[in-house]
Amino acid sequence: MMKYQGIYDNSPIFIQNFMATMYGYKIKKERFGEYYYEHLDFLNSFNNFSKKKQEEQQFEEVMKLIEYASKNSRFYRELYKEVNITEFKNINDLTKLPIVTKEMVRQNIEDIITIPKGKAIKSNTGGTTGKSLTVYYKKEDNQRRMATLDYFKAIHGFMNIKMKRATFNGKHIIPPNQKQKKFWRYNVAIKQMIYSSFYISEENIPYYIESLNKYKPESIDGFISSIYDIASYIERNNIKLKFIPKAIFPTSETVTQEHRDVIERVFNSKIRDQYASSEGAPFVWECESGKLHYDISTGIIENIENSNEILITSFTTYGTPLIRYKIGDSMTFEDNNTSCDCGLKTPLIESIQGRAVDFLYSTKGAKIYLGNVSNIFKNIPNAIAKAQLIQSSLTNMVVRMVVDNNFKEEYKSMLIDEIKHKFGNDMRIEIEIVEEIPREKSGKYKLIVNNVVTR
Ligand SMILES: [Zn+2]
């Protein structure tokens, strides 16, 4: 829509809804075409395969990808020069292939890509680490990913395109000069109300809630921080909701226990989380029993020897093949023979450890991950609308907070105690009460900002 942003910004809201829908139809064609439906069928049969057959299928898929990459990607042809791929017998033989790092991908991207850029679907990965990366998908890569995502949602009772969906994201749908308190646009093409994350503030949230109550979405997806802000407001102000979504599907941001508790309570519905980075990593998703399944129809996730760090190989990266790619995340697997109550036979993941960008340091230099940081506010009575912890050095931290009328001065010392307890007694903490905490350019909201310079 970027191309027409100028026209869009200066049009009345009903024209903007129309334009959002037109764009929606374009995307719909791109995402929900023949490969999408074909892959949905495949997933249906895949999940009825025996465990052994699923694993055979996975091996077959990975060989297809490796052969394709060594034929069509100059980078992989060179990288696999010394390896005899035809001798591979099973998935364990993958360890004979060299590991691919982010730096290698960044430097060699032109040689890795197998398709003309003009026809490809571009995806930018988060610049949170200061290093961003663009990967290119083939149309079928994209459609197969969409099918997997929708299959996951269907398991939780939500049929995409057929049912009404509310999405909170960072798309620029609201012109900067708009006076009306309408922070959403409707995309008829896929029955999606898009809510802008940029205008969510104590002042505007009532308008969002009014719209949600009128629209009555059957699922809510998108930025968890936005959904959480709305849930927290509803709870603090005792507002009645007139709908129950089938499930809530967060994307892009890490879900903390606090998010889960508040959102599930307020919406009377379950959060169903999923892991798949924008680089195109294989999917890990939550089942009906609340367990994380590693979806082996989407790729391979392996631990680097003697560590929890993972390497990913993704079956939907034919445009930019990622094979044994060191993505920077860590996971702990459950024993491969553990089965799940939900009936799915795919392996279980015990936990996904925070991404590199999701931690602060204790004064001694130990990493304290987001989930743990968010606990700090657990014992403070409901008076904080929003908070952000900014660490500038090992021993200096600023806590910014947006508070409401229930806030008492003594909460500050409670909070400082909590923080020192977690980060070390020598942490110098400054508390700032602010009107608003701005979002990132992407529309995401950061609870923690790690500005500590390390080597
Ligand atoms: Zn399960």
Question: Which helices and strands, and how do they pair?
Answer:
Elements lengths: L4 H5 L3 H19 L2 H13 L4 H22 L1 H6 L22 H11 L8 E5 L7 E5 L1 H17 L9 E5 L14 E4 L4 E5 L8 H11 L3 E5 H13 L10 E5 L5 H11 L6 E2 L8 E3 L5 E3 L4 E5 L5 E6 L10 E9 L14 E6 L5 E3 L5 E3 H5 L9 E10 L2 E8 L6 H14 L4 E6 L14 E3 L5
Parallel strand pairs: 3-5, 3-6, 6-7, 17-20, 18-19
Antiparallel strand pairs: 1-2, 4-5, 8-9, 9-10, 10-14, 11-12, 12-13, 13-14, 15-16, 17-18
Helix pairs in contact: 3-7, 8-9, 9-10
Bound molecules: zinc ion.
Walk me through the structure:
The chain is of the alpha/beta class. It folds into three domains: 2-29 and 157-271, Rossmann fold; 32-152 and 275-353, ANL, N-terminal domain (Rossmann fold), CATH 3.40.50.12780; 359-450, ANL, C-terminal domain (GMP Synthetase, Chain A, domain 3). Helix content is 32%, strand content 22%. The protein has a seven-stranded antiparallel beta sheet with strand order 8-9-10-14-13-12-11, with helices on one face. Strands 4-5-3-6-7 form a five-stranded mixed beta sheet. The model has no long low-confidence stretch (mean pLDDT 89).
Number of helices: 12
Spatial separation of the terminal alpha carbons: 40 Å
The portion of residues assigned to helices is 25-40%
Instruction: Compute the number of strand runs.
Output: 20
Major sheet details: 7 strands, antiparallel
What Rg, in angstroms, do the CA atoms define?
A: 23 Å
Q: In CATH terms, what is the fold-level topology of the largest domain?
A: Rossmann fold
From the coordinates shown, what is the CATH architecture of the largest domain?
3-Layer(aba) Sandwich
The average pLDDT is 89
Binned strand content: 15-25%
Name the overall outline: globular
Ligand types? zinc ion
CATH class annotation of the largest domain: Alpha Beta
CATH superfamily of the largest domain: ANL, N-terminal domain
* Spatial order of strands in the largest sheet: 8-9-10-14-13-12-11
Low-confidence segments, given as residue ranges, are: none
Number of domains: 3
- Category by helix and strand content: alpha/beta
